[in-house]
Amino acid sequence: MAEEDSTLPRRQLGRLLRQYREEIGLTMAQAARLVEIGTTTLHRLERGTADKVRVRIVAHLCEIYERSAAEGAMLKHLAEQAAVKNWYQEYSDLLPDNFDNYVELESAARHLVSYQELVPGLLQTAAYAHNAKFRSGGVGNHTAATRRAAYEAATDYQAAR
Q1: Phi-psi region for residue 36, left (φ > 0), alpha (ψ -120 to 50) or beta?
Q2: How far apart are CA 104 and CA 141, in angstroms?
Q3: Helix (H, G, I), strand (E, B), or coil: what is residue 64?
Q4: Of the residues 9, 16, 68, 82, which has the maximum number of CB atoms within 10 A of its CB?
Q5: What is the C-alpha separation between 28 and 34, in angstroms, rounded?
């Protein structure tokens, strides 16, 4: 695992290449023939499993798929990034198998959204839970919120016994 390149850019590149090929209605065999590569090579490229991603081939595919200059530049950048080693790869012997996928996705994230309770569970009262559910839109009306609170109280009582 330590010798592998980053798979995230390769997978993104492959997904986009497949999408663009399908948009113009070419089969994989037709596109491979136009670029003068094997169908298997194009298949690996589109799946993100190609050993080496050649920028020249990606640029040629962009021309065939009639992509704009900006899209072509983005795809070429992804092709260049496919061979770049990531910071965590030197620790790959410490990570479980396939855990590097999660680290790649986390390192590629642009922002993080975290949700937390306004009042910790131990301090919540039945009235608080009732109002929180009704106001959040989780329950349609006061009657439904009251019934839900009664159900939860009953199940909590049964669990405590």
Answers
A1: left
A2: 43
A3: helix
A4: 82
A5: 10
**Tokens 């260049």 belong to residue:** 80
- Burial string for 138-155 (b: 16+ CB within 10 Å, else e) reads ebeeeeebeebbeeeeee
Give pLDDT tens digits for 56-70. Answer: 999 999 999 999 999
The residue type found at 62 is: C
User: How much is the average pLDDT of 85-94?
Assistant: 68
Give the sign of the dihedral formed by CA 75, CA 77, CA 81, CA 82: positive
Q: Which two tokens stand for residue 129?
A: 């839970």
Query: What amino acid is encoded at 75 in this protein?
Result: L
Q: What angle do the packed helices 55-64 and 69-81 form, to 10 degrees?
A: 150
Query: What is the average pLDDT value for the chain, to the nearest integer?
Result: 78
Most confidently modeled of 46-50, 97-101, 118-122? 46-50
Per the structure block, which two tokens stand in for 124? 């919540």
The length of the chain, given as a count of residues: 161
pLDDT beyond 50 at 1: no
Distance between start and end Cα atoms, the chain: 51
User: Which amino acid, 79?
Assistant: A
